[in-house]
Amino acid sequence: MYPLPGSSYRGPAPRYAELRQTRPVVKVRTAGGVDAWLVTRYQDVRELSADPRLSRALACGEGAPRIGGTMHTTPEMIISLDSPEHSRLRKLVAGAFTMRRIERMRDNVQKVCDELLDGIKARGGTADLVQEFAVPLPLTVIGELLGVPSEDLRTFEKWARAFATVDERAGGKESLDGLAKLSEYIVGLIAEKRANPTDDMLSELIAARDNDDRLSEQELVTFGFTLIGAGFDTTANQLANSVLALLVDARDKWQWLREDHSRIPVAVEELLRHVNLFATDTSGFPRIAAEDIEVGGVTIRKGDAVLLALASANRDEAVFTDPDRLDLAREHNPHISFGHGLHYCLGKHLGRMELVIAIEGLVSRFPDLRLAVPESELPWHVGEINHTLTSLPVVWGD
């Protein structure tokens, strides 16, 4: 029995490369003391992500094994459901995240980004890019999309980040407290929008509930905190970690990106592949086999827990040339950082757009941006499901 290998924001532990070659599907002991199958090769991870025999609902229901190191979810959350329930709920919000609708948001995202960066530059030659940029950018964008009043965003950010935090030493209490506060807030926000509907996604979902009876009241509340929580925390972490990777591992490419902004979308895809977001090196969402599955030369039995190692899949040498190198000009890059199959990330277009606009803004305004402290002194949140920087101090100028 193997312990679950570790990882860093730079990627999975070297042990994963050995597993891909010798034992691509292997039993591991998780942080919660539960045995699970760890799947490490790209093709296997991709196929199993879309395999209906692997159930999220079984992993989230009453009596499900507590694997540890994974986000607390409730059975009615969309990330906890299988089809057909998942498909019904996804259709209700999918229209808000189409490429066309996200493109209509571009000017507003650009405006938010410009205002944040203008403020940073005006305040002088030092800044904390986590607190002053990486968090408020996606938080403001998702808040406007869903209709959260601007004066509530910072309080909401604290609760949503607590919800995304899992600290096993405290029994997950902080995460559960954040979930309770988010639920309470959303109930109040729904009541306000019922009385005074506006042009936002939450008002549209309320109409779907009240007029068409397509949502239960609990589903409506759950949708609210799920979309807001997921809509900013992951993007904030990805942005902060990507900027860190650029400043530490690809600082010679900063000017190269500044000279030609058309290179940035390709660079963002490579950052999405290369920068490992999940602290457990899985998707953060375990699955349970609903029936026996043959994969990688082994049989996963009905009832077994399964972890899909996305970061390992994104480093598979059978798919990616020189996979451990951060290649900002990489042309063939079919990464699966947004997942695959039923639970493929709804917000992928919005997340990509925010990352591109944010990096364009940084390289344009700060040609000599650099870390203000040694990388070893940067503070990370230990209990987070994601590799989360709590601060990213930078300087520019003389």
TrEMBL record:
InterPro entries, sorted: Cyt_P450 (IPR001128), Cyt_P450_B (IPR002397), Cyt_P450_CS (IPR017972), Cyt_P450_sf (IPR036396)
Gene3D superfamilies for this protein: Cytochrome P450
Taxonomy, superkingdom: Bacteria
Organism: Streptomyces roseochromogenus subsp. oscitans DS 12.976
Coiled coil start-end: none
Record flagged with keyword Phosphoprotein: no
Keyword annotations: Heme, Iron, Metal-binding, Monooxygenase, Oxidoreductase
GO molecular function: heme binding; iron ion binding; monooxygenase activity; oxidoreductase activity, acting on paired donors, with incorporation or reduction of molecular oxygen
Family from the record: Belongs to the cytochrome P450 family.
Annotated PROSITE patterns: CYTOCHROME_P450 (PS00086)
UniProt protein name: Cytochrome P450
